[in-house]
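Figure S7 source data.
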Amino acid sequence: MLRDPRRSSTSMKAADEAIRTAAWAALLVPLALGSPGSALRAQSTGDQAAIEREADPSIRPGDDFFSYANGAWLKATVIPAGKERWNARTEISEVTRQQITHLLDDAGVAPAGSLARKVADFRAAWLNEAAIEAGGIAPLKPLLDSIDRVRDKASLTRFLGRRLAADVDPLNWGVYQSARLLGLSVEPSLHGEKTYVAFLLQGGLGLPDREPYVSTEPGMQALRAKYQRYIRRLLAQAGYDRAERRAAAVMTLETDLARSQATKEASAHDQNADSVWTRDDFARRAPGMDWSVFFTEAGLDRQESFVVWQPVAATGVAAEIGSAPLEAWKDYLRFHALDEYAEVLPRAYAEAARALHGASVTGTPDDTPSQRALAATEAAMSGPIGRLYAERYFPAEQKARVQAIGANVIAALRRRVEAVTWMSPDTKRVALAKLSTLYVGIGYPERWEDYADLTVDPKDAVGNLRRVADRNYRHALARLGQQVDLTEWWMAPQTVGAVLVFQQNALTFSAALLQAPKYDPAASDASNYGAIGAIIGHEASHFIDPLGAEYEADGRRRRWWTPADSAGFQEEADGLARQFSGYHPFPDLGVDGKLTLSENIADLGGLAAAFDAYRHSLGARASDTAYVRRQDREFFLGFARSWRSRISESALRTQLTGNDHAPEMYRIATVRNLDAWYDAFDARPGDRLYLAPAARVRIW
Ligand SMILES: [Zn+2]
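Tokens for the predicted zinc ion complex:
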């Protein structure tokens, strides 16, 4: 079974929200469709700007700014059948999906050996059903032969060392289980280390985690029985005799492994990064296997220490290697080899795998072969696709334009931090240091990974998967001992989102996110400051708010806010909590001002900083009051447009009760806290959004 960590991650929150990273983070921000035009820096002229024409003149902006600003879109948009919401984010995701499809379709004619051709060949091999059927399990023969040659526990250990995979990622994406017996990740840790750290994580279960193996719940017992039938079926199809008995032995071994593993909940604690084992610790705390042989075969002989994310599992796996019968181990490995590659083996294997694993294999159960091939290619070839995607859809001029907006917004946020009175001087120094050194990645990484050493064969789907996994493992090993690259990206450019990586003091916005209406190349600077500028400000403020308060500027996990800072912040924030609790979309249900407070604070701080930055960017034209008024309007309209959204009543109710983000229409209403909005839209006492100047909240 091919596992796509981007899909199996438990850390992705519901649509519209954050991708979490170290102990938190990553806010994914919505996007919307719209003009994919490449016009640079379109200036609004004396004529009414396009964004003004999208407004609904029958609504008073002071009453309902969201509906006013998004009038044309709201009139034209219905939620597609089967969906609960349609918004800027889902629009952008849909556009991105089409862009990637075009990219892959065009890649087939690229020169042999080029990056594009590698991507196309990977998909072609996946779709080459004739070659797959004709090959049978022959492509797996070298692997199965090497399992046959395992003759004692020492050769078993050597085999397992060679099979260590780099398919986990505890701190960035919350991938805590390897498809192999153990998984390696080489990434920054949480103590301000200057070099990369080796993480070792549990794995080797064909079912998602330990629970189905140990639960007495009838549904879980049935799943267990189904899984054992699947093991038997794969082994029998591959020609192993006594498949029933072999399957039972595999199940016993795997259940013992599962029993020793950490639960999903226990795996999800970032404090697991504190569990550092030296080489001696392995011998002492996890007897039963020769770890030095294991590490040597894994290419880790010079690695002195590891973060053992789930110590119980390391102990358990070694004990199991020491105690379980060798033949059971060999059948376990044979079955898992078949399972790992089942989707690119003949149909009898692929269908069995999909029936068992369902949506956890590539794509969804209803996908057509070509959709599955696309999903598999996107998962395995994410790096190469990212480079092609960025080159085609996010030119360097756009990157430079958004970088300039981002730098100006962060400078404005710094000025706001300098001015706040509730933060103590020492705390303020750390906050300013964090903002000064914050890496804001726009569109795509500063350096591309090299795929020259990856061979892709259009007739060898199994080999391609193996070579991708081997390549990823080699690249993980190569990072050991290297200085941490604080500008490293953990999200592909074609993934719609923004990611906060506190342990790197880094913030990245993907090229896919940077599409209209989140960032519109055809729109004016003013409206882009209101859209992407406010989003950058929002995310940057998380580095210095109660979320970022847990991480120092050097990425070390250590709280730098004092209790007095927290108290002062809370006092300022109470007004905003009350303001949001005043919104009642239903007579019986309203916005929870406390639940959504930290996101609302980030929205307000981000919008205010973006406004300062935009005004600052006007230069000499700031004295032209008519011009400034037009630009101010575009700024606020750009902000409202970037969060356009339609949501069903039931989804709205769900969001109100459990989501820490307020519904978009109320997030937009935070414009009422900025004096300039009143002037730009002539909002007056009596308008529903009107707040007396003293009631307007300012936190940053
Ligand atoms: Zn946020």
